């Protein structure tokens, strides 16, 4: 049996086991005159905190919109993705479903079965951080409205140490490297990072550097092999920046052997001036930094590079997950679906979810009661443009080539050009973006 046949069988098996077959698309009124929406949602019902937080959003929605009746079906982890794929093959999707902005649910969003939300988003675009509403489809489509955004690159800065050393945050790569001698002479590490897992350098630094040296359009073309490749100067220059930083002893000693968390410990203990990691470290820093340290910790992006072709001052961003709409929905039912999608990810739902510590995609809703570091991250995301994270748009298997090659390059075993050649060869032969 071929792949399509196996998925069809899986779809039928799922329908039998769950007793649920989503049709979607039609105007469906309940006996009481309400519009019914069938929603397939990603939720771990064993996580009492998250489940209760989500139910609080649902209760608030139903109180405000009694004319819309929500009927949920929940799954979590691989069970969700397996069933979603089976339903897509059987073309039995629900009215609303939980989606990812990248390849994780690309088999569904790229199938023509999901509606482009841009007509609904445009009137409320200013309510969201710019990085949340980056294109998700090849023609600029946005398939799901992100409830949050994740930056994989923040250059956390110890402003107290900078002041102590008579320094200010560098504007350029050259200024940053020049600071290294001063910082090391004072007994501090210039940039705390750990790369023992390999993914950190790719996700939290290289992705941002590639956005600066190449830009979104170039990486889209390189990913697809449309007149660009990962052996181009844009990619090589980003690799060269990492090589120079390593050679100039800007990183933590033992960078490529360090377990994840060691760099943050150095930063928390005032042993490093800068700390490069993802925005998710905010939750840790909010509890591990003293109140005084939090006041003197700022959120920055890597300094300007020579000959930048991408967005100035950009970081690397992964738009968050959110709900999308069945492409068959029209009229009153489509409007009801959007009402829920916007409530969930917009200001009203986000205020409720923020009580759990989320940093929403909506701007300006965190008040003074939110943790200081959470507010700093929200302010950072509100004004910082975003580029792609490499492993969010390229196949994960290719990271097993790129990430070890990055480590080899830093050890001096291979050149940036060789890293680029190895990765391009793998992408050309294997990545789904080239098919």
Automatic annotation (TrEMBL):
<keyword id="KW-0732">Signal</keyword>
<feature type="signal peptide">
    <location>
        <begin position="1"/>
        <end position="23"/>
    </location>
</feature>
<dbReference type="Pfam" id="PF01547">
    <property type="entry name" value="SBP_bac_1"/>
</dbReference>
<dbReference type="GO" id="GO:0042597">
    <property type="term" value="C:periplasmic space"/>
</dbReference>
<comment type="similarity">
    <text>Belongs to the bacterial solute-binding protein 1 family.</text>
</comment>
<dbReference type="InterPro" id="IPR050490">
    <property type="entry name" value="Bact_solute-bd_prot1"/>
</dbReference>
<dbReference type="InterPro" id="IPR006059">
    <property type="entry name" value="SBP"/>
</dbReference>
<protein>
    <submittedName>
        <fullName>Sugar ABC transporter substrate-binding protein</fullName>
    </submittedName>
</protein>
